[in-house]
Amino acid sequence: MSKTFLFDEFSPVSSKEWKQKIQFDLKGADYNKTLVWESPEGIKVKPFYHSDDAVEAASNLTRTNGWSAAQAIYAGNAALANEKALKELKRGAESLYFIMPKETLNVKILLKDIALSKVPIYFEFAFLSSAYVQEIQNFAGNSSHQIYFNIDPIGQLARIGNWFYNREIDFKILTDLTALNVKNLLCVDLGLYQNSGADMIQQLAYALAHANEYLNTFKDTLSASFSMTFKIAIGSNYFFEIAKIRALRLLWRSIAAEYAITANCHIIAYPTKRNKVLYDYNTNMLRTTTECMSAVLGGADTVCNFPYDSLYHKDNEFANRIALNQLLLLKYESYFDKVDNAADGAYYIESITNQLAEKALLLFKSIEKSGGFLKELKAHKIQKKIQESSQKQQVRFNEGHDVLIGTNRYQNKADKMKDEIEIYPFLKIKPRKTLIKPILERRLAEEIEQKRLENE
Q: What is the CA radius of gyration of the chain?
Protein backbone atom coordinates (compact mmCIF):
# COMPACT_ATOMS: atom_id res chain seq x y z
CA MET A 1 0.00 0.00 0.00
CA SER A 2 1.45 3.37 -1.01
CA LYS A 3 1.50 6.17 1.50
CA THR A 4 -0.34 9.33 0.53
CA PHE A 5 -0.32 12.61 2.38
CA LEU A 6 -3.11 15.14 2.59
CA PHE A 7 -1.26 17.99 0.87
CA ASP A 8 0.78 16.02 -1.67
CA GLU A 9 -1.36 17.24 -4.55
CA PHE A 10 -0.58 20.89 -3.74
CA SER A 11 2.71 22.43 -4.77
CA PRO A 12 4.63 24.22 -1.99
CA VAL A 13 4.37 28.00 -1.78
CA SER A 14 7.59 29.92 -1.23
CA SER A 15 8.06 32.90 1.05
CA LYS A 16 8.53 35.11 -2.00
CA GLU A 17 5.19 34.00 -3.48
CA TRP A 18 3.36 34.70 -0.20
CA LYS A 19 4.86 38.18 -0.05
CA GLN A 20 3.89 38.89 -3.67
CA LYS A 21 0.31 37.84 -2.89
CA ILE A 22 0.21 40.09 0.18
CA GLN A 23 1.57 43.04 -1.78
CA PHE A 24 -1.08 42.50 -4.44
CA ASP A 25 -3.84 42.48 -1.81
CA LEU A 26 -2.47 45.65 -0.22
CA LYS A 27 -3.41 47.51 -3.44
CA GLY A 28 -0.43 49.82 -3.47
CA ALA A 29 0.10 50.26 0.27
CA ASP A 30 3.68 49.90 1.44
CA TYR A 31 4.31 46.39 2.78
CA ASN A 32 6.97 47.42 5.30
CA LYS A 33 5.08 50.45 6.64
CA THR A 34 1.71 48.68 6.77
CA LEU A 35 2.50 45.21 8.09
CA VAL A 36 6.01 45.23 9.56
CA TRP A 37 6.34 46.65 13.08
CA GLU A 38 9.39 47.26 15.21
CA SER A 39 9.72 46.29 18.86
CA PRO A 40 11.36 48.61 21.45
CA GLU A 41 14.45 46.41 21.10
CA GLY A 42 14.77 47.25 17.41
CA ILE A 43 13.53 43.87 16.17
CA LYS A 44 11.41 44.09 13.03
CA VAL A 45 8.44 41.71 13.16
CA LYS A 46 7.05 40.45 9.86
CA PRO A 47 3.40 39.52 9.23
CA PHE A 48 4.33 35.90 8.51
CA TYR A 49 7.27 33.53 8.94
CA HIS A 50 8.12 30.79 6.48
CA SER A 51 10.44 27.78 6.38
CA ASP A 52 12.47 29.65 3.74
CA ASP A 53 13.38 32.15 6.45
CA ALA A 54 13.99 29.59 9.19
CA VAL A 55 17.06 30.20 11.32
CA GLU A 56 19.25 27.48 12.72
CA ALA A 57 17.57 26.70 16.02
CA ALA A 58 19.50 25.72 19.14
CA SER A 59 18.38 22.55 20.87
CA ASN A 60 17.45 21.98 24.51
CA LEU A 61 16.33 25.54 25.21
CA THR A 62 13.85 24.32 27.77
CA ARG A 63 13.55 22.46 31.04
CA THR A 64 13.93 18.69 31.29
CA ASN A 65 11.61 17.62 34.11
CA GLY A 66 8.43 19.61 33.63
CA TRP A 67 7.54 22.80 35.51
CA SER A 68 6.29 23.30 39.04
CA ALA A 69 3.64 25.68 40.34
CA ALA A 70 5.04 27.70 43.25
CA GLN A 71 3.33 29.69 45.96
CA ALA A 72 5.04 32.68 47.58
CA ILE A 73 4.84 32.96 51.38
CA TYR A 74 6.02 35.83 53.54
CA ALA A 75 7.76 34.25 56.52
CA GLY A 76 7.46 36.96 59.14
CA ASN A 77 6.54 34.29 61.68
CA ALA A 78 7.97 30.78 61.25
CA ALA A 79 5.01 28.90 62.72
CA LEU A 80 2.39 30.83 60.76
CA ALA A 81 4.41 30.55 57.55
CA ASN A 82 4.71 26.79 58.05
CA GLU A 83 0.97 26.48 58.63
CA LYS A 84 0.28 28.43 55.45
CA ALA A 85 2.84 26.39 53.49
CA LEU A 86 1.24 23.09 54.45
CA LYS A 87 -2.18 24.48 53.51
CA GLU A 88 -0.92 25.62 50.10
CA LEU A 89 0.64 22.20 49.45
CA LYS A 90 -2.72 20.56 50.15
CA ARG A 91 -4.32 22.96 47.66
CA GLY A 92 -1.95 21.85 44.93
CA ALA A 93 1.21 23.96 45.24
CA GLU A 94 4.20 21.96 44.02
CA SER A 95 6.98 24.21 45.33
CA LEU A 96 7.27 26.98 47.92
CA TYR A 97 8.90 30.41 47.74
CA PHE A 98 9.69 31.76 51.22
CA ILE A 99 10.38 35.48 51.64
CA MET A 100 12.69 35.67 54.66
CA PRO A 101 12.86 39.10 56.37
CA LYS A 102 15.06 38.18 59.37
CA GLU A 103 17.75 35.78 60.49
CA THR A 104 15.99 34.81 63.72
CA LEU A 105 13.39 32.64 61.97
CA ASN A 106 13.53 29.06 63.23
CA VAL A 107 14.33 26.78 60.28
CA LYS A 108 13.02 23.62 61.94
CA ILE A 109 9.66 25.25 62.64
CA LEU A 110 9.46 26.84 59.20
CA LEU A 111 10.10 23.59 57.31
CA LYS A 112 8.34 21.23 59.73
CA ASP A 113 6.39 18.38 58.05
CA ILE A 114 7.25 19.60 54.53
CA ALA A 115 8.38 16.68 52.34
CA LEU A 116 11.65 18.25 51.20
CA SER A 117 12.45 15.25 49.00
CA LYS A 118 9.42 16.08 46.87
CA VAL A 119 8.86 19.83 47.29
CA PRO A 120 11.43 22.31 45.91
CA ILE A 121 11.99 25.20 48.32
CA TYR A 122 13.06 28.67 47.18
CA PHE A 123 14.31 31.37 49.53
CA GLU A 124 14.53 35.13 49.20
CA PHE A 125 16.70 36.46 52.02
CA ALA A 126 16.79 40.05 53.27
CA PHE A 127 20.08 39.15 54.95
CA LEU A 128 23.28 37.23 54.23
CA SER A 129 24.41 34.56 56.67
CA SER A 130 26.68 31.59 56.11
CA ALA A 131 25.53 29.95 59.36
CA TYR A 132 21.87 30.23 58.39
CA VAL A 133 22.43 28.70 54.96
CA GLN A 134 24.35 25.84 56.54
CA GLU A 135 21.58 25.32 59.08
CA ILE A 136 19.05 24.92 56.25
CA GLN A 137 21.46 22.68 54.36
CA ASN A 138 21.94 20.44 57.40
CA PHE A 139 18.22 20.27 58.09
CA ALA A 140 17.46 19.30 54.48
CA GLY A 141 20.13 16.57 54.51
CA ASN A 142 19.85 14.32 51.47
CA SER A 143 17.13 16.61 50.06
CA SER A 144 19.42 19.65 49.96
CA HIS A 145 19.43 19.52 46.14
CA GLN A 146 15.78 20.65 46.36
CA ILE A 147 16.73 23.85 48.19
CA TYR A 148 17.40 27.03 46.18
CA PHE A 149 19.06 29.69 48.33
CA ASN A 150 19.09 32.45 45.69
CA ILE A 151 21.96 34.40 47.23
CA ASP A 152 22.62 37.55 45.20
CA PRO A 153 24.79 40.25 46.83
CA ILE A 154 25.26 42.06 43.51
CA GLY A 155 21.49 42.17 43.13
CA GLN A 156 21.31 43.62 46.66
CA LEU A 157 23.75 46.34 45.65
CA ALA A 158 21.80 47.12 42.47
CA ARG A 159 18.45 47.17 44.27
CA ILE A 160 19.20 49.23 47.40
CA GLY A 161 22.58 50.79 46.61
CA ASN A 162 24.53 48.93 49.31
CA TRP A 163 25.99 45.47 49.87
CA PHE A 164 24.71 43.31 52.71
CA TYR A 165 27.98 44.14 54.54
CA ASN A 166 30.59 45.16 51.97
CA ARG A 167 32.01 43.53 48.87
CA GLU A 168 34.84 41.76 50.68
CA ILE A 169 32.65 40.24 53.41
CA ASP A 170 29.79 39.35 51.08
CA PHE A 171 32.09 37.55 48.65
CA LYS A 172 34.01 35.90 51.52
CA ILE A 173 30.72 34.39 52.74
CA LEU A 174 29.98 33.12 49.23
CA THR A 175 33.50 31.73 48.92
CA ASP A 176 33.09 29.80 52.18
CA LEU A 177 29.73 28.41 51.07
CA THR A 178 30.96 27.34 47.63
CA ALA A 179 33.90 25.61 49.33
CA LEU A 180 31.35 23.66 51.38
CA ASN A 181 29.70 22.59 48.10
CA VAL A 182 26.36 24.18 48.97
CA LYS A 183 24.11 23.43 45.99
CA ASN A 184 21.88 25.97 44.22
CA LEU A 185 23.56 28.84 46.03
CA LEU A 186 23.83 31.73 43.57
CA CYS A 187 21.07 33.63 41.81
CA VAL A 188 20.68 36.50 39.36
CA ASP A 189 17.41 38.41 39.60
CA LEU A 190 16.88 40.04 36.22
CA GLY A 191 13.31 40.81 37.29
CA LEU A 192 14.75 43.94 38.91
CA TYR A 193 15.77 45.23 35.49
CA GLN A 194 12.40 44.42 33.90
CA ASN A 195 10.41 46.01 36.73
CA SER A 196 12.56 49.12 36.50
CA GLY A 197 11.87 49.61 32.79
CA ALA A 198 14.79 47.92 31.03
CA ASP A 199 14.01 46.54 27.58
CA MET A 200 14.53 42.85 26.85
CA ILE A 201 17.99 43.27 25.35
CA GLN A 202 19.12 45.11 28.48
CA GLN A 203 17.52 42.53 30.78
CA LEU A 204 19.35 39.67 29.10
CA ALA A 205 22.68 41.46 28.74
CA TYR A 206 22.70 42.76 32.31
CA ALA A 207 21.74 39.32 33.62
CA LEU A 208 24.60 37.75 31.69
CA ALA A 209 27.10 40.37 32.86
CA HIS A 210 25.72 40.06 36.41
CA ALA A 211 26.20 36.26 36.29
CA ASN A 212 29.67 36.63 34.81
CA GLU A 213 30.80 38.60 37.87
CA TYR A 214 30.01 35.54 40.01
CA LEU A 215 31.49 33.05 37.57
CA ASN A 216 34.72 35.01 37.25
CA THR A 217 35.02 35.44 41.02
CA PHE A 218 34.39 31.80 41.93
CA LYS A 219 35.75 30.09 38.82
CA ASP A 220 38.35 28.14 40.81
CA THR A 221 35.72 26.46 43.00
CA LEU A 222 32.99 25.81 40.43
CA SER A 223 32.31 22.25 39.29
CA ALA A 224 31.02 21.18 35.88
CA SER A 225 27.65 20.46 37.52
CA PHE A 226 27.33 24.02 38.89
CA SER A 227 23.94 25.56 38.14
CA MET A 228 22.96 29.22 38.30
CA THR A 229 19.42 30.21 39.22
CA PHE A 230 17.80 33.08 37.35
CA LYS A 231 14.68 34.83 38.60
CA ILE A 232 12.92 36.41 35.65
CA ALA A 233 9.92 38.74 35.46
CA ILE A 234 7.54 38.15 32.57
CA GLY A 235 5.71 40.97 30.81
CA SER A 236 2.73 41.10 28.49
CA ASN A 237 4.49 40.87 25.11
CA TYR A 238 3.44 37.23 24.82
CA PHE A 239 5.70 35.74 22.12
CA PHE A 240 8.67 37.98 22.92
CA GLU A 241 8.56 36.86 26.55
CA ILE A 242 8.59 33.22 25.44
CA ALA A 243 11.62 34.02 23.31
CA LYS A 244 13.28 35.96 26.15
CA ILE A 245 13.42 32.90 28.40
CA ARG A 246 14.76 30.76 25.58
CA ALA A 247 17.37 33.41 24.74
CA LEU A 248 18.46 33.44 28.38
CA ARG A 249 19.15 29.70 28.28
CA LEU A 250 21.05 30.13 25.01
CA LEU A 251 23.18 32.91 26.48
CA TRP A 252 23.84 30.97 29.67
CA ARG A 253 25.00 28.02 27.62
CA SER A 254 27.45 30.26 25.76
CA ILE A 255 29.01 31.77 28.87
CA ALA A 256 28.96 28.53 30.90
CA ALA A 257 30.98 26.79 28.20
CA GLU A 258 33.79 29.30 28.79
CA TYR A 259 33.98 28.12 32.40
CA ALA A 260 33.64 24.41 31.49
CA ILE A 261 30.20 24.25 33.09
CA THR A 262 27.89 21.69 31.53
CA ALA A 263 24.78 22.10 33.71
CA ASN A 264 21.82 24.08 32.46
CA CYS A 265 20.61 27.12 34.38
CA HIS A 266 17.52 26.94 36.59
CA ILE A 267 14.81 29.53 35.90
CA ILE A 268 12.03 30.66 38.22
CA ALA A 269 9.60 33.05 36.52
CA TYR A 270 6.99 35.39 37.92
CA PRO A 271 4.71 38.11 36.49
CA THR A 272 6.12 41.59 36.16
CA LYS A 273 5.01 44.40 38.45
CA ARG A 274 5.55 46.96 35.72
CA ASN A 275 2.08 46.68 34.14
CA LYS A 276 0.02 45.93 37.26
CA VAL A 277 -2.64 48.40 38.34
CA LEU A 278 -4.49 49.61 41.40
CA TYR A 279 -7.78 50.56 39.76
CA ASP A 280 -9.80 47.94 37.91
CA TYR A 281 -7.50 45.46 39.64
CA ASN A 282 -9.25 42.35 38.29
CA THR A 283 -7.53 43.03 34.97
CA ASN A 284 -4.33 42.00 36.76
CA MET A 285 -5.63 38.42 36.67
CA LEU A 286 -5.80 38.53 32.89
CA ARG A 287 -2.26 39.86 32.67
CA THR A 288 -0.79 37.35 35.11
CA THR A 289 -2.50 34.48 33.27
CA THR A 290 -0.92 35.26 29.89
CA GLU A 291 2.41 36.05 31.57
CA CYS A 292 2.42 32.68 33.29
CA MET A 293 1.57 31.06 29.95
CA SER A 294 4.61 32.74 28.40
CA ALA A 295 6.73 31.50 31.30
CA VAL A 296 5.62 27.90 30.81
CA LEU A 297 5.98 27.91 27.02
CA GLY A 298 9.34 29.63 27.28
CA GLY A 299 10.63 26.79 29.43
CA ALA A 300 10.77 28.13 33.00
CA ASP A 301 11.44 25.43 35.59
CA THR A 302 9.17 27.01 38.19
CA VAL A 303 6.40 29.59 37.86
CA CYS A 304 5.33 31.66 40.87
CA ASN A 305 2.20 33.72 40.37
CA PHE A 306 1.25 36.83 42.35
CA PRO A 307 -2.25 37.66 43.72
CA TYR A 308 -4.16 40.25 41.71
CA ASP A 309 -4.38 42.54 44.77
CA SER A 310 -0.82 42.19 46.06
CA LEU A 311 -0.16 45.87 45.26
CA TYR A 312 -2.41 47.14 48.04
CA HIS A 313 -3.42 44.19 50.30
CA LYS A 314 -1.15 42.66 52.94
CA ASP A 315 -2.66 39.21 52.62
CA ASN A 316 -5.86 37.96 51.06
CA GLU A 317 -6.88 34.32 51.36
CA PHE A 318 -9.12 34.46 48.30
CA ALA A 319 -6.56 36.22 46.09
CA ASN A 320 -3.81 33.78 47.15
CA ARG A 321 -6.00 30.83 46.22
CA ILE A 322 -6.87 32.36 42.86
CA ALA A 323 -3.17 32.98 42.09
CA LEU A 324 -2.34 29.32 42.67
CA ASN A 325 -5.45 28.12 40.85
CA GLN A 326 -4.42 30.06 37.75
CA LEU A 327 -1.29 27.90 37.57
CA LEU A 328 -3.16 24.68 38.34
CA LEU A 329 -5.72 25.43 35.63
CA LEU A 330 -2.94 25.97 33.12
CA LYS A 331 -1.24 22.76 34.13
CA TYR A 332 -4.05 20.30 34.63
CA GLU A 333 -7.00 21.65 32.65
CA SER A 334 -5.22 23.43 29.81
CA TYR A 335 -2.61 20.65 29.49
CA PHE A 336 0.39 22.95 29.75
CA ASP A 337 2.24 20.10 31.44
CA LYS A 338 2.18 17.72 28.48
CA VAL A 339 5.02 19.13 26.35
CA ASP A 340 8.27 20.67 27.59
CA ASN A 341 9.35 22.11 24.23
CA ALA A 342 6.13 23.51 22.79
CA ALA A 343 7.91 26.49 21.20
CA ASP A 344 10.44 24.39 19.28
CA GLY A 345 10.10 24.75 15.52
CA ALA A 346 8.01 27.93 15.62
CA TYR A 347 9.75 30.10 12.99
CA TYR A 348 8.54 33.34 14.59
CA ILE A 349 9.72 32.45 18.11
CA GLU A 350 12.99 30.98 16.87
CA SER A 351 13.69 34.16 14.91
CA ILE A 352 12.98 36.42 17.90
CA THR A 353 15.02 34.17 20.19
CA ASN A 354 18.08 34.42 17.96
CA GLN A 355 17.78 38.16 17.52
CA LEU A 356 17.35 38.80 21.25
CA ALA A 357 20.33 36.59 22.04
CA GLU A 358 22.54 38.19 19.37
CA LYS A 359 21.74 41.75 20.43
CA ALA A 360 22.12 40.93 24.13
CA LEU A 361 25.47 39.26 23.49
CA LEU A 362 26.76 42.39 21.74
CA LEU A 363 25.70 44.54 24.70
CA PHE A 364 27.25 42.05 27.13
CA LYS A 365 30.56 42.20 25.26
CA SER A 366 30.43 45.99 25.39
CA ILE A 367 29.94 45.88 29.17
CA GLU A 368 32.83 43.44 29.61
CA LYS A 369 35.07 45.57 27.40
CA SER A 370 34.31 48.53 29.67
CA GLY A 371 35.39 46.62 32.76
CA GLY A 372 32.39 44.50 33.69
CA PHE A 373 28.98 44.84 35.28
CA LEU A 374 30.08 46.08 38.72
CA LYS A 375 32.25 48.80 37.23
CA GLU A 376 29.41 49.99 34.99
CA LEU A 377 27.00 49.84 37.94
CA LYS A 378 29.29 51.92 40.15
CA ALA A 379 29.75 54.43 37.31
CA HIS A 380 25.91 54.63 37.10
CA LYS A 381 25.97 53.71 33.42
CA ILE A 382 23.57 50.78 33.93
CA GLN A 383 21.16 52.94 35.90
CA LYS A 384 21.24 55.63 33.22
CA LYS A 385 20.48 53.21 30.39
CA ILE A 386 17.60 51.65 32.30
CA GLN A 387 16.21 55.08 33.13
CA GLU A 388 16.31 56.09 29.48
CA SER A 389 14.43 52.94 28.49
CA SER A 390 11.94 53.44 31.32
CA GLN A 391 11.21 57.01 30.24
CA LYS A 392 10.53 55.88 26.68
CA GLN A 393 8.07 53.29 27.96
CA GLN A 394 6.43 55.87 30.22
CA VAL A 395 5.96 58.30 27.33
CA ARG A 396 4.33 55.58 25.21
CA PHE A 397 2.02 54.75 28.11
CA ASN A 398 1.17 58.39 28.87
CA GLU A 399 0.38 59.05 25.20
CA GLY A 400 -1.83 55.95 24.99
CA HIS A 401 0.31 53.94 22.58
CA ASP A 402 0.75 51.22 25.22
CA VAL A 403 -2.60 50.52 26.81
CA LEU A 404 -3.64 49.20 30.22
CA ILE A 405 -7.40 48.76 30.06
CA GLY A 406 -9.12 50.49 32.97
CA THR A 407 -6.16 52.76 33.64
CA ASN A 408 -5.04 54.88 30.68
CA ARG A 409 -8.05 53.85 28.60
CA TYR A 410 -11.68 52.98 29.43
CA GLN A 411 -11.51 54.08 33.05
CA ASN A 412 -14.36 53.21 35.36
CA LYS A 413 -15.02 56.59 36.98
CA ALA A 414 -17.04 54.94 39.76
CA ASP A 415 -14.06 52.84 40.84
CA LYS A 416 -12.84 53.97 44.29
CA MET A 417 -9.73 52.61 45.99
CA LYS A 418 -8.74 55.00 48.79
CA ASP A 419 -10.37 52.91 51.54
CA GLU A 420 -8.98 49.63 50.22
CA ILE A 421 -5.28 50.39 50.49
CA GLU A 422 -3.38 48.50 53.20
CA ILE A 423 0.06 48.73 51.59
CA TYR A 424 1.53 51.85 50.00
CA PRO A 425 1.42 50.89 46.30
CA PHE A 426 3.81 53.49 44.90
CA LEU A 427 7.56 53.93 44.67
CA LYS A 428 9.06 54.85 48.05
CA ILE A 429 12.24 56.87 48.08
CA LYS A 430 13.97 56.96 51.47
CA PRO A 431 16.92 59.36 51.51
CA ARG A 432 19.93 57.47 52.87
CA LYS A 433 23.60 57.14 52.22
CA THR A 434 24.36 54.56 49.54
CA LEU A 435 27.45 53.44 47.65
CA ILE A 436 25.69 53.76 44.30
CA LYS A 437 22.41 55.02 42.92
CA PRO A 438 19.98 52.09 43.26
CA ILE A 439 17.90 50.74 40.38
CA LEU A 440 14.30 51.60 41.29
CA GLU A 441 11.25 49.55 40.37
CA ARG A 442 8.32 51.65 39.24
CA ARG A 443 4.96 50.76 37.71
CA LEU A 444 3.72 52.54 34.57
CA ALA A 445 0.37 53.46 36.13
CA GLU A 446 1.64 55.13 39.30
CA GLU A 447 1.26 58.77 38.26
CA ILE A 448 -2.28 58.29 36.94
CA GLU A 449 -3.29 56.33 40.05
CA GLN A 450 -1.93 58.95 42.45
CA LYS A 451 -3.95 61.68 40.71
CA ARG A 452 -7.11 59.53 40.83
CA LEU A 453 -6.63 58.88 44.54
CA GLU A 454 -6.22 62.61 45.21
CA ASN A 455 -9.48 63.33 43.35
CA GLU A 456 -11.63 60.69 45.08
A: 23
